[in-house]
Design a protein that fits this description.
The complex is a heterodimer of chains A (357) and B (269).
Chain A lengths: L5 E12 L2 E12 L3 E5 L6 H9 L6 E6 L2 E2 L10 E4 L11 H11 L4 H14 L15 H13 L5 E5 L7 H18 L2 E6 L2 H7 L2 E6 L2 E6 L1 H6 L4 H6 L4 E11 L2 E5 L5 E5 L7 E7 L4 E4 L6 E10 L3 E8 L4 E7 L12 E6 L5 E3 L2
Parallel strand pairs in A: 3-8, 3-9, 6-7, 7-8
Antiparallel strand pairs in A: 1-2, 1-4, 4-5, 9-10, 11-12, 11-14, 12-13, 14-20, 15-19, 16-17, 16-19, 17-18
Chain B lengths: L12 H22 L16 H8 L3 H35 L6 H13 L2 H14 L5 H26 L4 H8 L4 H30 L2 H6 L7 H10 L4 H31 L1
The chains are: A alpha+beta (357), B mainly alpha (269).
């Protein structure tokens, strides 16, 4: 069952804890050289799946294959994958060097080669000067890089990262994102990265799997996930969106004709919807522009606005009472409508999307 | 601190404090002070001298006390080593094996010696040893001591274990360590402060024990506490005060060490 180019193949994996099912038959293929992200809210099963790949959780049903070899019956210490833990789990009684060397020595490397490898990896994460320190003497960001070095040192076939940035502060987190991505490119191994932070997922990943309640909702590159969500959950979880109740008139070749609130008709791409009747239209707040009342796809009454620095967020109410938000870039020429104004809204047709429930 | 209760404002705080301190420590101070008495009387002060300390090591009763001290030491070392090993294994099982059948029962069993009145344990041990015809002095004391030392060794070790998250062992196994290597290279070093602390506590508990020892010891075999008691029965002499003071010092040193070692470990992680 070897498929070329596939690093890890998750095959109909089910995980049950007593009566609770954490994973409902999840199937995923993670490619070689890929930065793959498992994204979802807490409790969606993403960490359980990562721990199942590492070997810390038994799977109830299904298979996990690494380059074609079934891992399911292998204990964690026999799986050629390494993990960067959320709390780093650096051994507090060992120096940075000893921590990084740990996996190499257990794997049977001789000391000289192990020492050379440790030096190389510490250089990769820019920690050569801290080799003799104990983890307790390092900052959070440095500890995070030691954890990364320790997991990379034994040259795993796949690197697993369990929300490794969540313990860092915002500024550092943004810097480390770029660094992580660069290290992934440099090492050329597949990274499987777990996060609940959609911005992290969008900026670093080659592909993202969006999960919720033990199911994979959608797998795809960041742009596809953001711009072409296949259902309400994905559209709502990734970024901000307006979900409008519309009436579907027809769907042809992935293009839908719908009736907007206020009864103007509108054409846009549809995601796996073929029924006529009620539907949901997702429109990102930044893909809506304002115009004169008569020229708009929608007519709305302004209820207020929020200043966000780079943007202004306009809050409006439609004729049927639905509330929407619109992002207008904060430029000098932006003339904000005042509360109570009646305005027209234009939706960018290719950025709006009709969604299944 | 705002919001915390100021104990000093409680009526009678000072009186109760002084009374407690007096009852607890006045006898110890009297013993310690009179151990330096030059006179043979235990009530009249005859000036400062180290006569009675000299008497402990060279006087007529010296051989008896030396033999007793040696017995005490042998028993304390052996009993606390065995108890610490058993307690370490028990702590690993209780904190790492997840929920198993009879876990609560095991916990109660480990700690039972703390709850059963000591004299009951003493009588039970005596009855048991004579029932099976096992009356060889030191060994019976050693077995009895090992048993009641286990909970004392267990408590600091298990407290330490509970503060070590299992992510360290997982990280070790993720890095190709077998469960045995993960235990030896990661868990055991992290547990060490707790183990040392448990060992020291068990050691001092064994060294101090009188009641159970007195019941199960064979004829002619004395430990330091039983020897002191035997000597006191023939009248209190100042050399007893000197011995008691020496034991007090040893106890305080060991208990302080146990506490310090335990605290040191907590600061490290």
């Amino acid at each position: 069952m070897t498929s070329p180019g596939i690093a890890v193949s998750v095959d109909r994996v089910v995980k049950r804890y007593g009566s609770v099912t954490a994973l409902h038959g999840v199937s995923l293929d993670i490619r070689e050289n890929e930065f793959f992200t498992l994204l979802g809210p807490s409790g969606c099963g993403k960490t359980t799946l990562l721990r199942a790949i590492a070997g810390f959780e038994d799977v109830t049903e299904g298979h996990i294959r690494l380059k074609g070899k079934d891992l399911v019956d292998q204990p964690p210490f026999k799986r050629p994958v390494n993990t960067v833990f959320q709390q780093y789990a650096l051994f507090p009684h060992m120096s940075v060097t000893e921590n990084v060397m740990f996996g190499l020595l257990r794997k049977g490397w001789n000391r000289q080669e192990a020492e050379r490898r440790v030096r190389d990896v510490l250089e990769l994460v820019q920690l050569s000067d801290f080799a003799a320190r104990k983890p307790g003497q390092l900052s959070g960001g440095q500890q995070q890089r030691v954890a990364l070095a320790r997991a990379l040192a034994p040259r795993p076939e796949v690197l697993l990262l369990d929300e490794p940035l969540s313990a860092l502060d915002l500024k550092l987190r943004q810097a480390v994102r770029m660094e992580l991505k660069a290290i992934q490119r440099e090492t050329g191994i597949a990274f499987i990265f777990v996060t609940h932070d959609q911005e992290e997922a969008l900026t670093m990943s080659d592909r993202i799997a969006v999960m919720s309640s033990g199911h994979v909702q959608q797998v795809g590159p960041p742009r596809e996930i953001y711009e072409a969500p296949i259902n309400r959950f994905v559209a709502d979880f990734i970024g901000e969106t307006n979900l409008l109740d519309v009436t579907v008139e027809s769907v042809n070749n992935g293009m839908a004709k719908v009736l907007l609130p206020g009864n103007r008709s509108f054409e846009c791409p549809a995601a796996a919807v073929d029924a006529r009747g009620p539907g949901h239209l997702s429109v990102r707040p930044e893909r809506i522009s304002i115009c004169a009342e008569a020229a708009g796809d929608l007519i709305a009454t302004v209820t207020g606005h929020t200043y966000l620095g780079t943007d202004n967020q306009l809050h409006v109410k439609l004729v049927d009472g639905e509330v929407m938000s619109i992002r207008l870039q904060n430029t000098e020429s932006t003339l904000l409508p005042k509360a109570g104004d009646v305005i027209g809204l234009n939706l960018e047709a290719d950025a709006a999307r009709l969604l299944a429930d | 601190m705002a919001g915390s209760t100021n104990l000093r404002r409680f009526p009678g705080f000072l009186a109760v404090t002084i009374a407690c301190l007096f009852v607890l420590y006045a006898p110890l101070i009297v013993v310690a002070v009179y151990s330096f008495n030059a006179s043979t009387s235990i009530t009249n002060w005859g000036g400062v001298s180290l006569t009675w300390y000299l008497d402990v090591f060279t006087g007529p009763e010296a051989p008896k006390f030396q033999q007793a001290a040696l017995n005490s030491l042998i028993i304390a070392v052996c009993a606390s080593v065995i108890a610490t090993i058993v307690a370490t294994l028990a702590a690993v099982a209780m904190t790492r094996a997840g929920g198993f059948r009879g876990k609560t029962l095991s916990f109660a069993l480990i700690n039972l010696p703390l709850m059963v009145p000591e004299v009951v344990t003493a009588v039970a041990s005596l009855v048991f040893f004579s029932a099976i015809g096992f009356t060889t002095g030191l060994t019976t004391i050693l077995i009895a001591h090992t048993v009641f030392c286990i909970p004392f060794a267990y408590l600091p070790i298990s407290a330490r274990m509970q503060s070590i998250p299992d992510m360290y062992e997982q990280a070790a196994m993720d890095l190709y360590a077998t469960p045995r290597e993960a235990f030896k290279l990661v868990l055991l070093p992290l547990m060490t402060p707790g183990i040392l602390s448990g060992f020291l506590l068990a050691f001092i508990i064994s060294l101090d024990d009188f009641l159970i020892t007195n019941f199960v010891k064979g004829a002619g075999i004395e430990t330091l506490p039983t020897a002191i008691f035997g000597s006191v029965k023939q009248g209190i002499k100042p050399n007893i005060m000197a011995i008691s003071t020496l034991m007090l010092v040893v106890s305080v040193v060991f208990v302080s060490l146990s506490w310090l070692v335990g605290r040191m470990g907590q600061e490290k992680t």
